[in-house]
Design a protein that fits this description.
Blueprint: E1 2-7, H1 11-22, E2 27-33, H2 37-46, E3 51-53, H3 57-60, E4 67-70, H4 77-86, E5 90-94, H5 101-114, E6 118-121, H6 128-138, E7 145-153, H7 177-188, E8 192-200, E9 212-219, E10 224-230, E11 237-244, E12 247-252, E13 257-261, H8 267-286, H9 298-311, H10 319-338, E14 342-343
Parallel strand pairs: 1-2, 1-4, 2-3, 4-5, 5-6, 7-10
Antiparallel strand pairs: 7-11, 8-9, 8-14, 9-10, 11-12, 12-13
Length: 348
């Protein structure tokens, strides 16, 4: 049995983490903490958690707890992770790992030194269709990857949470973008060498935070990629197109569909592509999974992390990968400010 302590009682905990944790027979949620005493009391009652606190250290320092699940604002992750690692706890942390490269590297060295496991919660990569595309790439069906195009477009997070901590300087860049950057790095299987970003505040400074940007990345493998991130396009899109020397893949993560292309495409191919996507979405709508979206995939991610702890193997989304994602986001932020290409040599 893995005893878990949850830190944070916001929307992502109530809708994602706790339903998944409570549905895993090998897990017991022993305690939950949040600075908001009324909120944490209510959440503890809703999910039948016997111990709740306003001080997260009471969970981190509890010797009966094996795994700390950190679901607090990103800027608070570093100190909580460091304290948990120094207490010998394994750690699960919401994306992004943190919001500065300095904190990310400090987390990396602390976790490695402590010999504990850390997994970043990147549940969007757990759509089964993503694993299918990853398998096709790894088996060489697309040849050598030469380019990628990704889009993470959503509305302002007010529909998800009333909390205002997301509206910091980086804003949209550190909200939905971590899922896209994680996916692009994982599919390509290579670190990013340089980053250049365009855009920022589409209002010209009236909002005062990043709400629309495009990131251009150069991978160590030689491949290039672009990623567009937005809060202002009034739509929801999460897609990645992968281009290789042997073929291409159009991956629509939100609609759980991909289409692989080789050679010249004809109108018949377009019809087949559209029909396949329509059937796929219709099935998910009928079984009601479509409306749950990525919330369905907290459970398999957490289950895989627990298995990695028990079998002492690499985590699904290890700390080094989390550092790389953070580096891309921070590099993009720096590029927006300086209008320069940013080299990512942080791990050298």
């Amino acid at each position: 049995m893995i005893n878990v302590g949850v830190i944070g009682a916001g929307a992502i905990v109530r809708r994602g983490h706790l339903p998944a944790l409570k549905d895993l027979p090998e897990v017991e949620v022993k305690a939950i903490a949040d600075l908001n005493e009324d909120l944490v009391k209510n959440i503890a009652g809703e999910f039948q958690i016997s111990n709740y606190f306003s001080d997260p250290l009471k969970i981190i320092e509890d010797p009966s707890i094996d795994l700390i699940d950190i679901c607090t604002p990103s800027g608070t992750h570093c100190e909580l992770i460091k304290h948990a690692a120094q207490q010998g706890k394994n750690i699960m942390v919401e994306k992004p790992l943190t919001t500065t490269i300095e904190d990310a590297l400090e987390i990396y060295h602390t976790v490695v030194k402590a010999g504990v496991k850390l997994n970043v919660v990147q549940n969007w990569r757990y759509f089964p269709v993503v694993f299918q595309v990853k398998e096709r790439i790894d088996k060489g069906y697309l040849g050598k990857i030469v380019g990628m195009q990704g889009a993470a477009l959503t509305n302002f997070p007010a529909g998800w949470t009333r909390n205002k901590w997301l509206y910091h300087e980086g804003a949209a860049l550190f909200d939905f973008a971590p899922h896209l950057i994680d996916l692009m790095l994982w599919l390509n299987g290579s670190d990013v060498k340089t980053v250049y970003a365009l855009g920022g505040d589409i209002t010209g400074g009236d909002m005062g935070f990043v709400n629309h940007t495009q990131i251009i990345m150069e991978f160590a493998s030689g491949a290039t990629a672009t990623a567009i991130i937005s809060w202002v396009t009034e739509c929801f899109t999460f897609t990645v197109d992968v281009y290789g020397t042997g073929g291409n893949v159009a991956l629509d993560v939100r609609n759980a569909h991909y289409y692989e292309m080789h050679g010249v495409q004809t109108p018949l191919d377009d019809i087949r592509k559209a029909a396949g996507k329509t059937i796929r979405v219709a099935k998910d709508v009928l079984n009601k999974n479509y409306f749950k979206g990525a919330l369905l995939y907290f459970k398999p991610l957490i289950k895989d992390f627990i298995e990695s702890i028990k079998e002492n193997k690499e985590e699904p989304v290890p700390v080094r990968h989390g550092v790389m994602v953070t580096a891309v986001l921070c590099g993009a932020m720096e590029s927006l400010k300086t209008k320069k290409h940013i080299e990512l040599n942080f791990m050298s």
